[in-house]
Amino acid sequence: MKTFFTKFYKNLFLNRRLFAGLAISSLLFLIGFFFPWFSIIPVVFFYALIILLILDLWVLYSLKQGIIATRQIADKLSNGDENEIGIVIKSLYTFKVDVGIIDEIPFQFQKRDVWFQTTLKHLQQQIIPYMLRPTKRGEYEFGNLLVYVSSPLGLLSRRYVFNESKVLPVYPAFLQMRKYELMAISNRLNEIGIKKIRRFGNSAEFEQIKNYVPGDDYRTINWKATARKGEFMVNSYIEEKSQHVYCVIDKSRVMKMPFEGLSLLDYAINSSLVLSSVALFKEDKAGLITISDKKGAVIPADNRPTHLNKIMEVLYREKTRYLETNTELLYNTIRHTLKQRSLVVYFTNIESLSALKRQLPFLKQISKFHLLLVVFFENTSLKTLSETPAKDVASIYTKTIAEKFVYEKKQIVKELNNHGIQSILTSPQNLTVNTINTYFQIKAAQKI
In terms of CATH architecture, what is 174-197+241-444? Predict the structure, then answer.
């Protein structure tokens, strides 16, 4: 009995309408004190309020379970993406009720305003959707669903507590990966800025003779067929497949820098997952290496159906370290792991020419045996600052320093190109698109 009344008391809440009624009742009693002929009115009003309060209490507790609610959510969340969450709620009351819902979302989101209001009729069911964007990988714990129900009288609210506690892992951006996969299948990659270049391969396996179109390699012109047809004809060959594509991710302190809630490491991880997915779709073999001051994960290139899940599981656990990258260790790891010429996409963040010079001897050695693509990040804050008009002496000084750092990034690209190393200097939000574009260009040029 004690437990029942304790539960009853904890789940009963007084609404503003009741406090407004009590305030009006107090005001009427105050007026009746000065005007005796008016004293009967506050008494009638007060007892009427008490009767309505009892009636409201009775209708709210007339059913043992007047509301059914549950949370619709996937088994895992995608890092850096908008994940849709749904609250399914149904009323069993025979009258229309006003409903307020609190969803106890994980503390990592630091949101205290996840409150939804709606109105439900008898046996009516609604789905209330909302979006969550996690910015860190790891485990996220969802709590209970708290549903507050008010009758049309609106004096009291009854709280229902639904145990929807659940711990969900947040994986690298698999939603982005699926989106790119679907667009690649339906040939709609150009809608998001990816230039999917169609180019026949130059392998030894001949496929067909076709009409020449601008962009075809003139070296493949079939002069005999051209003479017979009277127009240019070219030989086409089946594109080489099963080439090795390795994503190498720098986990050192330079990748700790945040941008729009995500660290540069998370952007690199998300892009690596998408690139691996696209490479497997193109029937290449995808591999992964993570590096910092110590050797991290090493996944040899493969194209088995379960290989992408293996890469995702490894990326889920990767964290930033706080020392500089051991580029010599990276070179040795690549030499011992990669058994054939491969495309090595190295995600890092080179902030200065002096930092590049420390790594350049080993990057040059890697580029002798493999096609090395260095992907590093623009400092978007400095770029914005360098483009902002200066208004005083202090802002001129700040703008000059920002321009110096922006220019130094461009010098890094030039220095890499001078040594035959391809590079991408990109903003974090354009990382995936620019990386996949370059991958398609490399495939079309048969550089691997």
Answer: 3-Layer(aba) Sandwich (3.40)
